[in-house]
Structure formats: C-alpha cells, structure tokens
Design brief:
With 434 residues, the protein is α+β, with helices and mostly antiparallel strands. It has 13 helices and 19 strands. A hairpin with a 2-residue loop joins strand 2 and strand 3.
Length: 434
C-alpha cells in the first residue's frame, strides 16, 4: 500500500465496539471484495470492503475476518483468513501478506491461510447460534450483480439453515458514523492532499486548457502524495457543464470568461476527502459570477455552523433551503410570486439548488449512515451549497468537509483557498508568470 501504516489499535477498538453490539452466542463473518473483471484478462484496481477494512485494516483480496466474542474455544474470539501466495502469484503480482504481517496490521492474533477456512469456520459456526453477515445496504445502492458477500450469505443459509441470521450493517452504520481521533487524522490527511491538488490547479488553469489536462494535474498530485487515487470520479466542468451535477466526461476546452467547477477528493488509506471549488478560467470573476459565488459562500458559512450535536438532518436541510431562498431572491432568480406558489414538496429554491447540502463521509465518500439519527460529535459531513443557473450557462458549487465536535464544527478544509479574492490573486499571479 502507498499509505503509511495505520495504528492497529484503531482496528482493535473498532472490533470491540462491534462485538459489544452483537447478540449472545453469535458469530460475525466479513468477506473481502471481489476482484472486478475489466476486460480480457485484466481487473479493475482492488478496493477493500469497507466493513472488513474498518474491523481489520487488511487490504488485500481473498480475506475473511471472523468475530465470535462468546466463543468457548479459547483464542478464537477474533480470527482472520488470508490467501497464501504461491510461486506463480508471487512472481507476477508480488508476495501477499504473511501471517506475521497480517497480525501486525490488524492486531488479530489468530491468522490462518484461506485453505484452512472450511475446517476452522465450520467448527466455529456449529458452536454459534446466530450468524451476522455483511451485505451492502447503502441507501443509494442498486445492482444486478451478486458480490462475494451475497454469494457467501446464500451458501451459508443453504448449508446452515437452522441458524438465526442477522444483518451486520445496522451495527456498522452506527459505528461508522462516529469517527475516532485516529480516523479523523486519516481523513485530514486525505483533505490536505486534496488541498495541495487544488493549489496546483490554481497555477495551471487558463483559457485553452482541456478539462482532462486539469484532471491529470490533480491525479499527479494525489499519487505524488501517497493517495490511492481519486475517492470518486472527478468532476472537471467548464462553462455550461457547470450545471451537470455529476459531469465526468472531462473532455472540453476551457474558454475565456467561463467558470470551471471542480469536485474531487483524494482517497488516502481508503478514507475519502470531498472538495468542490468554482474558479474563473481567465483568473477573474465577472460581476454576475461574483455575486452568485458570494451568495453560495455565505450559505456555506452559515450551513456549516449548524452542524452541531443534536441537530436533525431534516431540519438542517429545511433551514438551508430558507437561506438559499433568500439568496435567490436577492439575485433576482426568484420573486415573491415564486415563493407564494411553491409547495412543501416542491420548494422554489430547488429550481437552482436541487441536491442535498450535506452527507456523511469517511471510508466511503457517501459513508454508510442512519439518516434519522441526530448529528453527533465525531461525525464528518460535507457541506456543499450550490446555485446552478442553466439559462445563464453557469453554476457555482462550494464544498468543505466538516468535523462535528461538542465545542463546535471544525472545518477540515479551512486552509484550502475559497475566498474569491485569494483565488483571483493566485490565478492572476500564475498567468503573469506564464
């Protein structure tokens, strides 16, 4: 892995938290992700299953982690299985983890080769009454493909039909929402790498640059700083592309006078950053662009101050809607008739700001979470207000990552330029040098 070793105390702490939530006489089994076929004999880059990584830090395919806190067999409360490298795989792909390395990374003492799993796991399952299995239960996830965790769950249910089965995700979601200080430090590292890439972009952007050239500058900085790469497909959207929320073609030429909307984030040690900035291609906002930019920035500053323990997300989003409504009236995009005719289900501001302001982030850029829980200290949220004016051919989105604490919100992106004047100064200085 490119990233620096993570303190195994993090994973031991996470396992303890998970096992405290399990019912008596239960075993929990976590599978690594599949290697996903790309084309021919090639695969997409491997990304570890979030739950398995959260509980072990083991970051390679064909890995299984088993938790059995009430196991009567001494020393089998925590077990991991990893693949043993053979001569051919070591030659082509390099050596996998040794047992000693897996033990050091995870803090799990009992490590077996995967070849032993059938025998060992069978005995453990027969000692348990309940089995927790980890399937993807993300709110926005839909796929016709059966992943390894689902295939494994179906196999177990056929083989052990008299056991009682439980979902691991409700427990994991509760735990993943609250970041420990060790996790926050890793997220901050991802944010700092992302900030470095944005500084690089400010030096590079000018009329005539292609969107994919800008993406390349970001990717260069991510890899140079030890990130895995992008936490999600980057949005590098110039001109009218500003108004396409998930624009990822990144193949147009930046024209003079346009805005460039950027939405990107580094993934470091499997933890995500998520940043949005909107900058002037020619190095200076025009008056209308600046007015919209300032309106979005005011909304961001007000919104992030509302990310406080005890706040309910529904109320948070409603209040931001009221802020946005006021800004849109001031900009002349809405009038009093629009406000009178709006409904609760279709508020007028949604014409120009159609997505949510905040989502949980951590091991996934849209982190697993329970949206009906109140905000709590230790949570990390994005804060991303925006205004998209399709009829005027541009949009503005700004986004920072916010840590919730009992002392107030902490902006993890506070050192990344966001003031219009600072962005203009850096860009104009770079243009003058060139």
């Amino acid at each position: 892995m490119r990233y620096e070793a993570i303190n195994p105390e993090l994973f031991a702490y996470n396992r303890k938290r998970f096992m405290r939530k399990m019912q008596p006489d239960a075993i929990a089994i976590f599978q690594s992700n599949d290697l996903m076929p790309r084309t021919g004999d090639t695969f997409y880059p491997f990304r570890q299953n979030t739950g398995l990584f959260y509980l072990s830090g083991l970051d390679q395919p064909e890995t299984v982690v088993v938790l059995f806190p009430d196991c009567i067999k001494e020393g089998f409360q925590e077990v991991a299985f990893i693949k043993k490298s053979d001569e051919a795989s070591a030659l082509y792909d390099g050596e996998g983890l040794t047992k000693a390395q897996a033990r050091e990374i995870s803090g799990i003492d009992r490590i077996y080769w995967l070849d032993d799993m059938e025998r060992v796991l069978h005995e453990l399952i027969l000692l348990a009454k309940r089995i927790y299995l980890n399937l993807n239960e993300h709110d926005g996830f839909r796929t016709p493909t059966k992943d390894k965790s689902l295939r494994f769950a179906q196999e177990l249910q056929q083989r052990y039909p008299l056991h009682k089965y439980h979902r691991a995700q409700p427990i994991l979601k509760k735990l993943l929402m609250i970041k420990s200080p060790l996790e926050t430090a890793i997220i901050k590292r991802a944010v700092d790498i992302t900030g470095g890439a944005f500084e690089r972009v400010l030096q590079f952007v000018r009329p005539g640059r292609k969107e994919y050239e800008i993406e390349a500058e970001i990717t260069h900085e991510f890899i140079r700083q030890g990130a895995n790469g992008h936490a999600y497909d980057p949005v590098i959207a110039s001109g009218e592309n500003n108004c396409v929320l998930h624009y990822t073609q990144n193949n147009q030429v930046c024209q003079p006078g346009e805005l460039l909307l950027l939405d990107f984030g580094a993934e470091y040690a499997n933890y995500a950053a998520d940043l949005s900035r909107t900058i002037p291609v020619s190095g200076q906002f025009n008056a209308r662009q600046r007015a919209v930019y300032d309106a979005v920035l005011r909304c961001l500053r007000q919104a992030k101050q509302m990310l406080l323990p005890g706040t309910m997300m529904d109320e948070y989003h409603k209040e931001i809607g009221r802020m946005m409504e006021s800004e849109l009236l001031e900009l002349g995009l809405l009038d009093r008739t629009d406000i009178k005719q709006q409904s609760d289900k279709k508020p007028a501001y949604k014409r120009y700001f159609m997505h949510g302001t905040s989502h949980h982030m951590g091991l996934d850029v849209h982190d697993a979470a329970n949206r009906y829980d109140p905000i709590q200290a230790g949570m990390v949220f994005t804060c991303e207000p925006a205004i998209y004016i399709k009829e005027e051919g541009f949009g503005v989105r700004l986004e920072n990552d916010i840590l919730v604490t009992d002392e107030g919100p902490v902006d993890l992106c506070e050192r990344i330029p966001i003031e219009a004047e600072e962005i203009e100064e850096q860009m104009q200085a770079a243009l003058a040098i060139s």
